[in-house]
Predict the structure.
Amino acid sequence: MWVARKIFHRRYPVIDAHRQILPACVVLALAVACCAAGAQAPAKSGADGWAIEIHGGAGEAEWLSMDQPTANAYRGSLGKALAAGAAVLEKHGTAMDAAEAAVEVLEDDPLFNAGRGAAFAADASNEMDASIMNGADRAGAGVASVHYTRHPIQLARAVMEHTPYVLMAGPGADAFSKQHGLEQEPPSYFFTEMRWKEFEDVMRKSGRAIPPRPEGAPAAPATKPGGSARVGDGIQFSHAFGTVGAVARDSEGHLAAATSTGGMQGKLPGRIGDSPILGAGTYADDRGCAVSGTGVGEYFIRLSLTHTVGELCRQGKMPQEAADQLIHRDLPALPGGEGGVIVVGRTGLPIWSNNTIGMFHARQVEGGKAEVWVK
Ligand code: ASP
């Protein structure tokens, strides 16, 4: 809690300071003065122009010992995914296409817990969840426990666009994916050594038997049991969360959000988290904001977390205030409630809020440079 508070203070010193010391009237006077001086950027089409933010999951204690090669690898991957989304927006593409494009890149990247590199269920299968939502009409859909789709985010969008449903799961969703002509991959494609090592660790610590490696997975490397899994030349790095997501605002001012995950390591087969559920892991409403979350999904579902942030934005709260209310107040009020969100509103910079030690994320706005945060 203290660490989260410290991080919050470091990240939002102004918010923290004025909350603690400045009387409300001083803040109001400053705001009026800023507006009068024309400090706010003139509105472009689509409010403040296009904007995108992505995340690659929120992390735990391992972040404190992340070495430079590992950090560099994550930085490069986040930059690539951000660029894919920004390229869509730069060409006046839609927020939906941009969010989807960024998530697809992260799904292909073995560093993240989505698509290739997904976490393992207790039976060593990869059960993947994803969802996408369009703020323009609040259409959206999710898919849960899918096994073979290379890009689960594409499957979520196909469910949204080609069925009347908002959620499909398991073998039915797998069959729909195949019928729809989406790229299919065998379990060995999703397997990564790094994620398997994390999985073994989780199973060992929870006193459960480690199942055989999935069919087609490479033979175990010759390291001693529990030895390091490596990112490049880096030290072992495993983080409890690694879900990916994106929020975008296009040049027309429309918003979208997308989220994709392999879920929690060692989950019981059949467990479904927040990521495929609209209003829990993903939410978008042009009247408020677009939100993608990462963290312990059960708590996000219980709080309808991303929908609540969206509603607070719709009622006039700034995205930062809305996100902080959920992430720093409501989520930790439930013991075990950990995670973070990225949010983009109708105007202004996309923001983030997390109560974990860190969260991989990156953002870019029209006319601005890519910003990437790994630690
Ligand atoms: N929210 C995901 C889940 O509970 C996990 C994560 O964010 O890493 O399935």
